[in-house]
Specification:
five-stranded antiparallel β-sheet; 5 strands; alpha+beta
């Protein structure tokens, strides 16, 4: 069974906690993907945007709303630095980051091609713009059975 990933815009943690595979008709702006670990991806994206190594980003970038447990489910908020970078990036920049992300050696076992990476980053970038415009958070849940 593949990893299921949903990035979504929510007003607060209380709302974000209620999201997940069983509550897909929530009506919030969202995009769904499969085949990659988003908690690793957001660190790699910020690293590619900023040039900082991922181990220097990890401290403040992921705020886990529901930490991963034995059930394989997690909810986290994408930190303001990356949310702002995604929201401000145009299609050309997002495409460049997507190509570089897909080419990382750490991605060799994931199921995301360069073309899929572009679709993912453009969709998450659009959600980031919505989150910034609405003064809301950009969250992600994923289920990795």
């Amino acid at each position: 069974m593949p990893i299921t990933v949903e990035f979504f815009v929510a007003p607060d943690d209380v709302t974000a906690v209620g999201m997940g595979p069983r509550y897909r008709d929530h009506g919030l702006p969202a995009v769904v993907f499969e085949g990659f670990f988003p908690d690793e991806a957001v660190l790699e994206w910020e690293s590619l945007f900023t040039g900082k190594p991922t181990d220097r980003i990890t401290v403040g970038e992921l705020r886990r709303v529901i930490p991963m447990a034995n059930d394989g489910f997690e909810v986290f908020e994408v930190g303001p630095p990356l949310r702002t970078l995604l929201a401000g990036a145009g299609a050309l920049r997002l495409g460049e980051i997507a190509d570089r992300w897909a080419a990382l050696e750490s991605r060799a076992d994931d199921e995301v091609s360069s073309g899929e990476a572009t679709v993912i980053l453009e969709a998450v970038g659009a959600l980031a713009r919505e989150a910034v415009r609405a003064g809301r958070g950009l969250y992600c849940w994923y289920f990795a059975p």
